[in-house]
Specification:
With about 160 residues, the protein is an alpha+beta fold. The chain is about 40% helix and about 20% strand. It contains four helices and six strands; from the N terminus they run ββββββαααα. The chain has a six-stranded antiparallel beta sheet with strand order 5-4-3-2-1-6. Helix 2 (about 90-110) packs across helix 3 (about 125-130) and helix 2 runs antiparallel to helix 4. It is elongated. The mean pLDDT is about 85.
Length: about 160
């Protein structure tokens, strides 16, 4: 991430910020209170030092509500949505569109994925094998776009 220097100087109570933990969680939070040297964040016990934007225990780092932070937050939300999908409950059409999105990302950007073996005819298994932590954000976007297109296709087919 970009080095945000002195962004905490303008921090106000109720402001939106983003907080990252050491295990990679990135959350949107609200500033609870601001003092001369420290500020507190709703739902997080240790205070944050305004000089380095880190919690006093060193386990959390805060970031301003800017484009880059919002983009990272959005990407992580997309990844979490994809990882939480119950693939067995998806229709064959949804799986086919999602695999097509993954294939488009592969062709356009050269990304490889584990479920790309053409010999595997079980499409749900191919999709399940393809969804892991190594996916690039572009691949995730293409997969979710495929899912959205399949839902739109279903709606169009059902309209009289």
């Amino acid at each position: 991430m970009t080095n945000h220097t002195n962004w905490t100087g303008d921090l106000t109570e109720g402001a939106t910020i983003f907080v990252a933990t050491q295990n990679g969680q990135f959350s949107k939070c609200r500033v609870e209170s601001v003092r001369d040297r420290y500020f507190s964040v709703e739902g997080i016990e240790p205070e944050f030092d305004k000089l380095n934007a880190c919690s006093v225990d060193g386990l959390h780092h805060s970031y301003p509500d800017d484009f880059e932070s919002r983009e990272i937050f959005g990407l992580l939300q997309q990844k979490n949505r994809l990882m939480s999908l119950q693939i067995d409950s998806l229709s064959l059409l949804q799986v086919q569109f999602m695999l097509a999105g993954l294939e488009l990302a592969r062709k356009r950007y050269g990304y490889q994925y584990r479920g790309s073996k053409a010999t595997d005819t079980n499409q749900k298994r191919r999709l399940a094998m393809s969804i892991d932590d190594s996916l690039h954000p572009t691949q995730i976007a293409y997969i979710l776009a495929g899912l959205k297109l399949s839902l739109l296709q279903t709606e169009v087919n059902h309209d009289p």
